[in-house]
Every structure is written in structure tokens, then in C-alpha cells.
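re: that complex we talked abt at group meeting.

here r the seqs, copy pasted straight from the sheet so there may be weird spacing, ignore it
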Amino acid sequence: MKPETGTQHGSSRRRLLNAAKDLLWRQGYEKTSPQDVLTLSGVGKGSLYHHFPGKLDLARAALEEVSAELTEKSLSLLSGDDPPLERLRRWLMTPRDGLMGCRIGRLANESAVFEAALHDPIADYFRALEQRVTAVIAEAVETGHLPDSLPPVETARALMSVVQGGYILSRVHQDPTLCTNACRGAMAMLEALAGSRSAP
Amino acid sequence: MKPETGTQHGSSRRRLLNAAKDLLWRQGYEKTSPQDVLTLSGVGKGSLYHHFPGKLDLARAALEEVSAELTEKSLSLLSGDDPPLERLRRWLMTPRDGLMGCRIGRLANESAVFEAALHDPIADYFRALEQRVTAVIAEAVETGHLPDSLPPVETARALMSVVQGGYILSRVHQDPTLCTNACRGAMAMLEALAGSRSAP
DNA sequence: GTCTATACGGAGATAGAC
DNA sequence: GTCTATCTCCGTATAGAC
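got the structure back, here u go
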């Protein structure tokens, strides 16, 4: 295991990355200044520009780590020997901090993301997640757990959107339960679809 | 009709508001500088601070207009004499510019929104929309167009989240069709639920 | 009401000592 | 490698002339 996990321990490079990951989550890219990262990490300005060419490169390195972590966690939730609907529920209903937002999706509206180097780690996460969710839905359809009128890819995108949009509802109303609530609504739809499957 | 609609026409106050509405949509609040607004509107700095105490107040006034416009448009799409599912479809599948994002929801992740004066117009829109979508879903359930295992509020929040999250998918992959795609997925779920209703 | 000129702080980065 | 001092530019706002 790596002992260099906290914001205040490990090499300067590691502390910068950990601080950047934290601040990118809490404030986003544009709102996070190099000074913020230095203050949180307890590192001097010289170290930052020694290890990274600039703010953008630090953010990219941080986001690559976040993307990998999130991908592993999400795919893990969607894996297992249990029925596909159960796996979907485990992913959809996993506890989320609605007020913080998705560590990756949170950045979607920043210009830097739209144009520059931050795009890749962000898109990678969404791509990997979409593939897996689509596969699980397809499996549910094939095994008769969901009606075959459901298009797997579109349905997967709808479910991913529920999660991302749920964060937005939580932020807008400053109510951490709304994200979970939206996911529960989507889960209710899936269950109703599963229930209806065995009728005819 | 009001002739003062464009960015380059009307009084200075109106031009400032129109420019601010445009830039808040395209860049968000934090990224938009007073100078940006002045350049786009063709107005001088003095006029801005004559009509508004500062950037925040200008943004709030602009967002109040956007919120009202969006509320009227959305509620209108959800109104009519046709069946509730048809109204839901009209709202869900209305054309959207995925790359631009929701003019209101786009701001959810900005700190200023979380803490300050911009909160009210944003929350107002989401509140009004949620009420209406919930009502239409409840009507669909009561009239037998959707199964009564669907909780109307949670389902409404899920559908609103699909729209908001769809914008995020579009932004992340820089593909304007993904937002529509996610909405289509949600619509497919609703239709499958409606279809299953008449079976037993 | 509208403009230009000016002020001040902080963002982002560099220089160079240690 | 890490630090402090320094630099430049821009975001935000004020002052005061017209």
C-alpha cells in the first residue's frame, strides 16, 4: 500500500497532487488557484513549478488519478455474480455526496475542459462507465430481467445522466438527499419495468 | 412586443442584461468578467456600475430573466389537452443544444451559486419545473397511463436529472447528440412502462 | 447616463538563493 | 528539490469629467 495518501504527507509532488485532487473536487478548475493548492498542501511555489510546467498540467495529472480511481470503483460496483438488476441497483444507489458533485462530471461546464488537456481523463471515465452500464443492461434484457424494447446504450446514458443530473438538483437546492432521490426514481422505473416483464 | 431584444440594441441597461444573459450561458458566472460584458454589449464601464452595484447584481438580474423565460417555456411544453405521456414526451424531447448546457443548471457547480444571491432565480426554476413534471406524472399514474408503483416526485426528479445530466454527457464528449440520446433513453423507459400497463 | 482614467488585489508564472 | 522575492497582467471597482 502507498503511505502517501493524505494531503500533508509524502513528497511534495504527492502532496501537490492530493491537494489538487481535493480542490478540483470542491471548487473546480477555474476557481482553484495555484496559491490554493500551495496553502492546502503546505508546499512552496517553487516546488509546484519544478514538478509541473503549470496549473493545467498539475490539474491534468490530478484528474488522471481521479478518473482511474472513479473508474475502478464504478466498474467494481457493476461487477459480481448477482443478477444484472442487482448490480445496477448497487451502482445507482451507492451513497453519494450530493453537495460535492461528481469528482469528474463536476468539471464538464468549465471552458478549460471543453477546449484543452483536461478533456481526456474526463472522457475516459465516462466512456468506461458507459460501456459497462450498457453491458449490464444488455445482459438484463437478454436474460429477461428487462423488456427488450429498451435500447441498452440509450438507457445506459439515461441512467448515467440521472446520477450526474441528481448532483445538480442537490447543488441547486442545497439538499444532499435530492441526488439519492433522483436515483431512487430511476431505480423505481427499472423495478417497474422488471416487474412488468414477467406478466405477459 | 419589446423591441429591445438583441445584444446591440436598446438602452444601456438592456444591452448589459442581454450580454450578461448570453455570457452566463456560454461561460458561466465566474468565467465572465465585467469587461466581457462591456465588450459584447458595446457599453462603457461607467454605465455598468451606474445601473448595477456590481457584477453579482447584474448577474442576478440577468438570471431572474432567464429563469422566468425558461420556466414559461418548460411549463408551456408540459401543458395541453393531450395525454400526459404525450406532454412528457414533448418536454423531454424538445430540441436542446447539448454543448451549451442548460442556461440555469449550467451554473449549479459555481461557488457563487452555492453561497450567494444567484441561488434564488436558479432554485425557482427547478422548483417550478419539478412541481409541474410531478403533476403530469401523477396524472399519468391516476389515468392508468403509467403503473402506480412509480413515485411521482422521485420519477420527476429522475427525469429532470436526465435532462441536466444529458447536457453533461454532451459537454464531456463534445457531442451535441448525447443529451438528446439520454432523453430518448428515458423516454424509452416511460414508453415501455406505459406499454406494460395494459397487459395485466 | 455615459465615458475614460486610475487604483488595488490576486492569478499565474519566473528568478535565483539555499 | 524547495523556498522567497519579484514580475506582469487582468478582474473588479472607483473617481470624476462630459
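couple things i noticed - Chain B touches chain A through 61 residues (CB under 8 Å). The longest helix of chain B spans residues 119-142.
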